[in-house]
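<amino_acid_chain>
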Amino acid sequence: MSENDAELIRANLEVVAPRAGELTSHFYALLFLREPSLRELFPPAMDTQRDRLVQALVRIVGDLENAEALSGYLGRLGRDHRKFDVLAEHYTLVGECLVAALARYSGDTWNQAVADAWGRAYTAAAGLMTGAADLDAAVNPAHWAGEIVAHERPADDIAVVTVRPDAHYPYRAGQYATVETPWWPRVWRAYSIANAPDGNGLLTFHVRAVPAGWVSNALVRKARVGDRVKLGPAQGEMVVDHRQVHPVLCVAGGTGLAPLRAIVEEIAYVGSDRFVDVFYGASTHSGLYGLDDLLRLAQRVSWLKVRPAVDDVALAGISGAIADVLAEYGPFYGCDAYLSGPPEMVLESSRVLRRLGLPAEQIHHDPVTLGFGVPPSAAAEAPRGRDSRERANAY
């Protein structure tokens, strides 16, 4: 993309930002008016869906001048859209409706140059997405079916759900999968996989029931052994490079423990000599539902240290919010850090680690887009919380 196109698109996004909700509502109204059959690809309630469209646009615009990051993101998005039954011919219509919606809410700032810039950007993005989808279709199904083979409730609002996919499910420790339940068709939510790949082919998810969380409440309170679910392809780049020799720092909050537990397992399977330091925090003691298993593993191996922290309770002499505990026990400048949990915790922990001298490239967590009008620099450093966050459907 040319520098001029990027500037035009960024400027236009700032203009429409105050009316983002109206813009996305108008976009979907146009889309369903032009092609009513597309409504079947989306969930009954569209509020979350509209938010996700905004976040995707901001993420894409934030990476306009980072070709590698943008190509990777769009490729993953294209592969993931296969599970929604999205076809290549749908992309043209989506682009037309998006440009029309942008034009409607841009006022006098809209002109042919802005329209052409958006058109070129969308055409390039759609090409990357459809190309990735075609390549993926040659080797993987659009989605996987699986059976729940274990369901445990370590806390009233948390379930540990184990699924056996019907076919081989490729993933790496630290990644997440989107899940659709039979109770809410077409509503997909993402949950981190809490175990490293092994010979039994099972996937374990730590799910916290959140207010108004359709899928999370179904998985925690309704699901039983024998129920069937659908799985989207594994996503996420918070994976360990086992060629490195740096010590590993894991910082988990609540059910954000899930991907970090999988990373610890994978390090054990690989047989690495890397030292692993796990900080595991929660607002209450019951939130440390996975602590016992970690402590038992730490007793059996010499390379693992576990430091629990509860906001207002001293455990082994440690107390306070997890970011405060990090600040007290640093520096960690020689490690590779992996962070997962509530967004605020991850963001603050990342700031603490940078203040302690850890380079940004050695701090790993899934990114999040904060919303319309957020500077790319702020969006780039913001986390995607994975203990309570529920992700979106098509487009």
